[in-house]
Amino acid sequence: MLGGMEKHHKNALMKLRIHLLQEMVIEELVEHLVSSEVLTPAMHDDIMTRRTALTKNVTLLNLLPRRGPRAYEEFCKALCATGQRHLAQELEKKVKHQGNSITHQAYTMFSRPRGVALLMSNIRFDTPDLDYRSGGDVDSVLLQKLFSSLSFQVEVRSNLSAQVNVTG
């Protein structure tokens, strides 16, 4: 996995570490992280062979920050899916309250759909100054697939005039 977890996510995990160690129920949580490919089967086995819940939780929290930029979001989703939504919400509060982070300006991306992606694709133009945009239809299809795969509701508007684009 390339790269590590974002710094503000690592900080949130560190600030809530003791609480997470005490509260997490790990068995099903780890299964979700394996299925989302945040953890490997070998990591799963390493965690689950630990004797106590505390040492299992320690092992997981030590692995997570090194499991790539998706690890935090997948961890929060797994917490929600396993009835531990309160822990995911506490993590998100910590992330939002980090003053030097731009994430306090963002919203959490757990909802489905995540929002609406409006694609405006102009291929044909009314003005003679602009030529037909060959390949624009392919771009539109690829962007629709991309945003759909990211769980956005996609709306496409094609060949709109400048007046419609401005006034909507």
UniProtKB/TrEMBL annotation:
SMART domains linked to this entry: CARD
Signal peptide: none
Transmembrane region(s): none
A Pfam family matched in the record: CARD
BP-aspect Gene Ontology terms: proteolysis; regulation of apoptotic process
Gene3D superfamilies documented for this protein: 3.40.50.1460, Death Domain, Fas
Domain CARD: 5-94
Top-level taxon in the UniProt lineage: Eukaryota
Single GO MF descriptor: cysteine-type endopeptidase activity
Residue span, Caspase family p20 domain: 113-163
Name of the molecule in the record: CARD domain-containing protein
InterPro entries in the record: CARD, Caspase-like_dom_sf, DEATH-like_dom_sf, Pept_C14, Pept_C14_p20, Pept_C14A
Protein's organism: Hymenochirus boettgeri (Congo dwarf clawed frog)
